Amino acid sequence: MKGYLFHTDDDRREMLRSIGAESIDEIIDGQVPQALQMQRPLDLPPAADEMSLEAELRALAAKNCSVASHACFMGAGAYDHFVPAVVDEIASRGEYYTSYTPYQAEVSQGNLQVMFEYETMVSQITGLDVSNASLYDGGSAATEAVLMALASVRKRNKVITSDAVHPQYLDILKSYLVGIDAELVVVESNDEGTSESLIDAIDDSTACVLIQHPNFFGRLEQVKAIADAAHEKGALVIQSFDPISVGLLKSPGELGVDIAVAEGQCLGNPLAYGGPYLGIIACRKDLMRRMPGRIAGQTTDRRGNRCWVLTLQTREQHIRREKATSNICSNQTLLALRATVYLSLLGPQGLKETAEHCVVKANMARERFAASERFELVHSGPIFKEFLVRDREGDVFGLMKYAAENGVLAGVPIADVSENACGGRYDDCFLVAVTEKRSEAELDRLMEVLDSAGKAESAQLAQTV
Amino acid sequence: MRNQQATNLIFEMSRPGRRAHQLPSLPESGEAVSALLPADALADAPPPLPEVAEGDVVRHFVNLSTLNMSVDTHFYPLGSCTMKYNPKRNERMASLPGVADVHPLQRDQTVGGVLQMMYELQNMLGEISGLPGVSLQPAAGAHGELTALLVAAAYFAERGESDRTVVLTADSAHGTNPASAQMAGFSTKTVKSNADGLVDVEDLKSKLSDKTAVFMLTNPNTLGLFDSQVKEIADLVHEAGGLIYLDGANMNAILGIARPGDFGADLMHFNPHKTFSGPHGGGGPGAGPICVRDFLAEYLPGPVVVREGDEYRCQAPAKSIGRVRSFFGNVGVLVRAYIYIRTYGKEGLRKVSEDAVLGANYLLSKVRHILDVPHGDRCMHEFVASAKRLRKEKHLSAMDIAKRLLDYGFHAPTVYFPLVVEEAVMVEPTETESKETLDAFAQALFRITEESGDLIEDAPHSTKISRPDDVAAARKPVLKWTKGE
Fold first, then answer.
1. Residue B82 · residue B381 · CB < 8 Å
2. Gap from B244 CA to chain A (nearest CA, Å)
3. How many CA atoms are closer than 13 Å to the CA of A114, on its beta-carbon side?
4. What is the pTM of this model?
5. Read out DSSP for A18-64?
6. Within 13 Å of residue A102, how many CA atoms lie on the same side as its CB?
7. Which residue of B26, B142, B294, B469 lies most exposed, with the fewest beta carbons within 10 A?
8. SS3 B465
9. Which three-class secondary structure state does DSSP give residue A232?
10. Which residues of A, range 212-271, sit inside 8 Å of B by Cβ?
């Protein structure tokens, strides 16, 4: 067993001599009382060499279905968008991924400039003034935005949201609000969306309204109307948005929201079974000092050169401790780098075209479901890249299993997203997501597999009978 | 040779009409976007992102990368944030098809391989910590702290002890401890350190009461000292009805040597990016899995992986506090931790800690002749020196030394932390540095203390920039590029 250690036995002897110790045990015994030391080796597998371990890992990886082996129509907050080769190439440079948090600005200008460029691009896609250098993921970013709003709008503790917001985001919000004096009101969405019922729920005790647009079902919300109503009552508006959608749709800033949050996985980051992901947050300038997480800013050095540093750190835990605006002391720089490279590659036109592909192909898929006997579209009206399908035969799980066995990840059963998602009223439904990566042939394949599932099941049924 | 291309912003390279990315044509059978989306929802134009060629992008970001120090290029003698070698096999295996491109909402049967890895990792972390209940969900160490405190709050609430509202933190603790406690709805009180740099037990006693919920402890602590009274401390807290939380930031010192569960901790988090060699990534991503005693396991956030025969399944524990993050967690980081632990195995992890302790004590024995080391003749994985005397005698601050070290090709140590040491210079060599590197670092430190004041106060000299104006940056924040400015 060598691992990644350096010292030869001679090195160790010489180092011990310099320390003035007989053995490493002597050093450890001098500090960790014998009674507190383990008296046995750890019960772990034996050490594995690189070749054997890689073979084992490859075998484990091969057990999984993935978007490499299957046509993926799964979304619900994580999407199979195309990742250009340049993104992987840049992100795999050790100077980026093995570097430390840029406290020493002189030797971190690379990362700091990337953060500054990332923050600029987030401002551009959100249409808002200020971004930080990223948060954990879209879900916790939504919660951090709510905490920000509660701290900014004094003496109001009501948070209004809709069940057309990602159910897991609402779950996170509920977990965090346990420690905070706040009331959460979740408005039920209906076939017309949630706009009207949300507007009705806003009152003088409302601190903020959290909406998602396009919403969890891929539908458009009336953000502008909600924002106007909220502002009239003195409440803030938070929008969770899809960064790809702003290639076509009005940005959160244009719609009048105060804080925008997003899951940045779609911007050049791998699916990786859920993480690490990229939490995007941006806000109006007057809320800047309430923003959690790291921020890079521009300044000059002694020689007058333009340069970048981490700034506004008085908001952070390592200076004010008990008075910190949040406990977050990391960010997702490497994923923010990927997003920055991705957005640089796409540019305005590439982002627009990617969004167009999503809209056009998602609608093509929706037409196919509308024409199928087994399925029913739950909603009408415009969608961005996702839509909700009801299985009239009520066998969503069986259907997904059959599709996976036949090379298609056909969608996300709503009941899999969260316990009691949307009050259980869509438990016989699944979400279908279509990105630019899906071809017409794959759309045909999806319907072919889902249709044959019906036949396979009836054939099986006939046999049993 | 100054590289101008790494100085310009990508926005300044933009030229209207330049493109790097080409999509296939839209399907002819599809409807036009204008027919599919209402006009009032559409933007007049897409966001004003840079318009650049692929070659621009590659050169720009490659050039920027050369302006970073990194573990691949330099030694980081950085206390409190273990910066060890990042194995390349971890990177390759974590990006395998079937790992990196698995959708988080795939049904359990289609991700058996990933779930098996995560299940085994849960068990391995449970064994290493001595705390068998494991949730891999938290996305960072501080996120793990918050999550564990929410678990503690749920536990007390169910026992009808919601009036336990106080979290105690050590004055040498990471700043995230009190901040996390606040977020979980607790108020905080600080417990002092004694002259030896350990928890002042008398002060702790005076602060324990029937209001005490949790004492958050770092052991080995931020001075690199193992608190030998930790069991007695845990007993006192338990007698008062509270729980012990262990900040796992310093686990690199005690792998296979001592287990938090054995010395009294009830809950803890791991920093896989510190202890198990996940790359720091310029500030992230990390992960913050938490481990807890049996009786707290049912409150953990879901999903956790359970095994049924040969099948692995995700489920939420019975009285789960709910989610703290979307989907499963930072799986990519966790897979790297899994590979690292498997590479060392049962005997090897102890060896990691032994060599980390050896390296730190070796460097301590050399540095002691150069700077004062106020606490402890020996240390665990790190130690804290003080530049107080140099400051008095030569007007050299800890920051000056840190900046000058950059010229010698070493990343700066952590300075001014922990707050309990004046002019603190905190050093953690880790087990993945050779004796030669440690000698060279000590030598550089020695030479700096012999250099003239001016040379040091103006340092660093060899870097692209020197001593940026932090005050101006904070006073008039410029947080984005604006055209024409």
1. yes
2. 16
3. 37
4. 0.97
5. HHT-S-HHHHHHTTS-GGGS-SS----PPP--HHHHHHHHHHHHHTS
6. 34
7. B294
8. coil
9. helix
10. 220, 246-251, 254, 263, 270-271
